[in-house]
Amino acid sequence: MRRAQIAGGTLLAAALFALPAVAAPPPSDTRGWLGEELPLPLVVRTPQDLAVKSAAEKQYLIFNLLAGGKLAWDGGDFASAATKWEALLKIHPLDPDLEKTVRPLAHEARGRAGGQAAAEAPLTAMPPSSTPSPSTLAVPPPPVAPVIPTASVSGTVSGGGPQGPGGAVIWLKRANGETPRPTPAHGKVISQRGKMIVPHVLVVPVGSRVAFRNDDPIFHNIFSLSKPNEFDTGLYKQGATYTETFRHPGAVQLLCNIHASMFGFVFVVDTPYYAESEASGAFNIKGVPPGEYELQVWHEAAAKPTVEHLTVGAGGVHGLALRVGGDKRAPQFLPDKSGKPRQSHLGY
Fold it and tell me: Does residue 100 contact residue 136 with C-beta atoms inside 8 Å?
């Protein structure tokens, strides 16, 4: 209860102490008070729901003990007033201002009752069958997720033909269970710089947004015909940015409708366990829980991905040697965004 709501416990105590010890008539229901028991039909489906319900019941119990004691005092039933206020003082934690107000009132009520406790049980906020005791009304802490040990999978990719092993995408999926859905990446940018797509290969989880930024003093038009991730930035000038969200796993070939020499890839994975190899072929996948996995490796020069079964223990897997092919045939032509062969562009 806020300090403003208490509004001076000393003044309230003085006013109550000044009342004559003559029994006043019981308060009328016409006051509109909700009564000593108010059902709280709060749905509990989650731990958070339970925390809210427990907090609400605690506040309602505090209200009823405070207001019920005052009504008993006004009716001349000092023993009941003392009993209710004494029960209120046993609730912990209790607002210090409220405690400062109620404690002298409870002492005075007990003195006017002759030091004898009333036979009436303390007021409860809910029926006994559904109301926790004051000691259990504290809001429970949020559930703590179990800590799952993780390890790393590292090694080296070789092969890739004349291009070498750099830019290979390595990813893991559960072999005997459901693979967790990855968190989309943020802040990923592919630049058009020096009539090149930089980086040449970018790997992102499904749902990631990638910004295509033109850093050249000429126009570009990046597009892809790779279904179902096809897109078209349209023509845009230096300093402009186009953003695309990639919602489906797989390789997305990037081309420029103006400059046939420009191409690259976005590779979209549907797993949180992935990495891209360095130019040397080295890679490291972190945060992998122990278990059985299917490992796959994609490389733009390989006709098909490399697939292996991998067992990850508590210590992870290190020194893994993977090889990718360099046997993918070059396309007969690089298409324009309508899928047709390009006309030659002198100087481009």
Answer: no
pLDDT the model gives residue 142: 64
Q: Dihedral (C-alpha) 151, 155, 160, 163: value to the nearest 10 degrees? A: 100
Domains of the chain: 3-136 (no CATH), 151-324 (2.60.40.420)
Of 295, 293, 294, nearest in space to 312 by CA: 293
Contact 281, 157 (CB under 8 A): yes
For strands 241-246 and 274-276, give the pairing.
unpaired
DSSP sequence for 225-290: --TTS-EE--SB-TT-EEEEEE-S-EEEEEEESS-TT-EEEEEEESSS-EEE--TTSEEEEEEEPS
CA 98, 99, 105, 106 dihedral sign is positive
pLDDT digits (tens, 9 = 90+) for 242-280: 999 999 999 999 999 999 889 999 999 999 999 999 999
Q: Name every residue whose Cβ is closer than 8 Å to that of residue 310 and which is 6 or more positions away in sequence.
A: 153, 172, 292, 293, 294, 295, 317, 320
Q: CB–CB of 169/298 below 8 Å?
A: yes
* Chain-centroid distance, C-alpha 229: 27
Q: The tokens of 131 are what?
A: 């109301």
Q: Is the pTM of this model over 0.85?
A: no
Dihedral of alpha carbons 230, 236, 238, 241, sign = negative
Helices (H) and strands (E) in the chain, counts: 5, 16
